[in-house]
Amino acid sequence: MVNVGSRFPRSAWAPTRAVLGLLLALLVLQLAYGFSFHFVQGVAFVFDGMSLRTEDVLAGEVWRLASYGLIHSLNNPMHLVINAMMLFFFGRDLEQRWGPWRFLLFVLLGVIAGGVAVVAASLLHIGIGAAIGVSGACEAVVVTWALFNRNRDVLLFMVAPVKGIWLITFAIAMWMLDAVSVSEISAAAHFGGIVFGALAWLVLARRQRIGLFVDDALVALRLKKKPRLTIVPKGPDKWVH
Questions:
Q1: Pick the residue with more confidence: 172 or 154?
Q2: What does the CA dihedral 138, 140, 146, 149 come to, rounded to 10 degrees?
Q3: Mind giving me the DSSP string for the chain?
Q4: Which pLDDT value is given to residue 100?
Q5: pLDDT tens readout for residues 68-123
Q6: 0.90 exceeded by pTM
Q7: The CATH number of domain 2-218, selected from 1.10.760.10, 1.20.1540.10, 2.60.40.10, 3.40.50.300
Q8: How many Å apart are CA 63 and CA 57, to the nearest integer?
Q9: Percent of the residues in the chain that have a pLDDT greater than 70, as a whole number
């Protein structure tokens, strides 16, 4: 686990609006999931319809690519706890950067990216083709945060001081270990989240450069006129371009 707030004032630990709402929603849904499984099995089918299974997605139940992120394993409570901690520590910074609604959209797209990776891995016969949990979005949050905060000091497992960029190495290493393990963790969902997080950062942080590249390409193809440089006077002896 990573501590990114120990050297900051207590206010740095305050949850942001979207992160707090998301964590509360995940907790309430998990309690309802467990309660229905143990005591009201007649409504358990609702949660079963939320889990991700490749055969169901291919049969047209595409909502599973997003809904599976709302429930977590009942066999391992730490599944939800660890994901919640990742969202809390890293999601707040991204929410403050983008705003609550854009952050929630990012989380949704991260979940979908993880779901698509699960289905793709199943079709390639390298995965079980099933998953639950918001882990894909959590990986996306960590990777994007790390790329935006490459030189920020963090404490890995609350002990080892590292730079933010090293969290990507840690995420990839954990994905590789998950891929060769026999645990319930979906390595494919994690991989999808890692890739999405990197691509999201590339687009968001480099969009100006990408725009300039596209403009230059259009000018080269004569699909767009080259902008003309205009010099205007600013004063008796000063000029601005």
A1: 172
A2: -100
A3: -EE--TTS-GGGGSPPHHHHHHHHHHHHHHHHHHHHHHT-GGGHHHHHTTSEEHHHHHTT-TTHHHHGGG---SS-THHHHHHHHHIIIIIHHHHHHH-HHHHHHHHHHHHHHHHHHHHHHHHTTSS-SEE-SSHHHHHHHHHHHHHHTTT-EEEETTTEEEETTHHHHHHHHHHHHHHTS-SS--HHHHHHHHHHHHHHHHHHHHHHHHHHHHHHHHHHTTSSPPPPP--EE-SSS-EE-
A4: 94
A5: 999 998 888 888 999 999 999 899 999 999 999 999 999 999 999 999 999 999 99
A6: no
A7: 1.20.1540.10
A8: 8
A9: 78
| Residue type (1 letter), 139 | E
Q: Which pair of tokens denotes residue 238? A: 């000063």
